[in-house]
Task: inverse folding
């Protein structure tokens, strides 16, 4: 506790880095997953292929993934972000596709009957109704990404893991406690915040 | 690079086999312990609403905790080595098995249980002959998630002296020796993907014939 009070600037910096790389990765992963998910919702073969391929990425142990990227991109933030994006893809694509498929056919038919184009149906009917399930995917992905980011400190990705690794190598328990507990708190906070967002969206789409 | 990695293994086969054996032992023990705790617990709380609320809440929080953070916390508390790693990995494997056991048992159709009761089955028979077989695919899905997570986590156990394939990766990164880190990373990846496939197969095998037909 004393260590934390004396070094709060260092902890805050690590926390800031952690959040920054997590958000960057989630944004990139979402930008890739949205179009893939939309296509996968309509074409079962695209769904199966995308889920199988990204599912394999998802299974690879985090540290092994980061290590396998070293010969390709070296150490650093790029390595960390690629790994985090790869881990999010399966969750995001699956949820986006399943969410869009879950929109009742009658509603889509009604929209078509009102003269909406396919693009309008997607933007104004399907995506808004799919939002709660998409956010549920975002929730799992953000918890995953926060967890991966802890390990990514080992390949110089920065973030809270830096404190943990420094603590382990110097045998300095307060650093380990601070880094590990902050990482846990961040993961739980992100989970709760997105769970709240998911509930609110669900209520809105039902109303 | 791959060739160099291969030579690295050939030059010290016992070190590689020892690391692989530790990795497997650590993973299997953690998964076994987690299953031995979480499956009976999941069954117990399935019929106790109040207890379930607390346990499920705890499991949901446990599921979000970063693996490395849990492993790192084991170190100041329990020191380094195999036992603290085993403790942390067991802790990480509990939530998926527990949540799936609970969900699997809870989702057994109430009518099916009534029918079993009507046939004169005791509560224990209903559990063993009706609820568990029907819940098995869901329980196995939880074991599958936990198994992959434990194998990934065991790679990280190298940081707290747990041994395993992670040792090659951390040493390889520290010395920037790419062949050496591949010696850890490639088998660890293969192990995770292989385990996932194996449990996927077991999950299908464990599905009672009647349920499998309905799904098809």
Result:
């Amino acid at each position: 506790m004393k260590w934390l009070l004396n070094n709060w600037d260092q902890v805050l910096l690590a926390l800031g880095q952690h959040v920054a790389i997590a958000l960057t990765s989630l944004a990139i992963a979402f930008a890739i997953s949205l179009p893939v998910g939309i296509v996968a919702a309509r074409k079962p073969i695209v769904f199966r292929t995308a889920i199988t391929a990204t599912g394999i990425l998802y299974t690879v142990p985090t540290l092994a993934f980061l290590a396998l990227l070293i010969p390709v991109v070296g150490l650093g933030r790029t390595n960390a972000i690629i790994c985090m994006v790869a881990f999010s893809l399966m969750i995001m694509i699956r949820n986006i596709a399943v969410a869009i498929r879950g929109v009742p056919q009658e509603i889509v038919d009604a929209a078509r009957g009102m003269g909406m184009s396919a693009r309008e149906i997607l933007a104004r009917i399907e995506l808004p109704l799919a939002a709660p399930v998409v956010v549920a995917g975002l929730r799992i992905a953000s918890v995953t990404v926060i967890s991966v980011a802890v390990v990514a400190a080992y390949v110089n990705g920065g973030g809270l893991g830096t404190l943990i690794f420094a603590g382990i190598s110097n045998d300095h328990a307060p650093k380990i406690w601070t880094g590990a507990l902050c990482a846990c708190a961040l993961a739980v906070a992100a989970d709760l915040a997105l769970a709240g967002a998911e509930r609110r969206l669900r209520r809105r789409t039902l109303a | 690079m791959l060739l160099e990695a291969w030579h690295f293994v050939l030059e010290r086969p016992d070190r590689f086999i020892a690391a692989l054996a530790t990795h497997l032992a650590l993973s299997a023990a953690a998964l076994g312990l987690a299953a031995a705790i979480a499956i009976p617990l999941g069954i117990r709380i399935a019929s106790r609403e109040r207890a379930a609320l607390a346990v499920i809440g705890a499991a949901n929080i446990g599921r979000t905790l970063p693996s490395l953070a849990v492993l790192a916390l084991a170190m100041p508390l329990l020191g380094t080595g195999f036992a603290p790693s085993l403790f942390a990995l067991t802790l990480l494997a509990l939530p998926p098995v527990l949540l799936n056991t609970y969900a699997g048992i809870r989702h057994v159709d109430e009518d099916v249980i009534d029918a079993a009761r009507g046939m004169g089955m005791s509560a224990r028979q209903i559990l063993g002959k009706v609820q568990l077989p029907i819940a098995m695919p869901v329980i196995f899905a939880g074991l599958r998630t936990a198994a992959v997570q434990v194998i990934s986590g065991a790679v990280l156990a190298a940081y707290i002296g747990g041994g395993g394939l992670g040792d090659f990766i951390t040493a390889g990164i520290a010395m920037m020796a790419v062949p050496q880190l591949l010696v850890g990373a490639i088998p660890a990846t293969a192990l995770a993907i292989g385990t996932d496939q194996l449990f996927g197969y077991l999950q299908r095998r464990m599905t009672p014939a009647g349920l499998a037909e309905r799904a098809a």
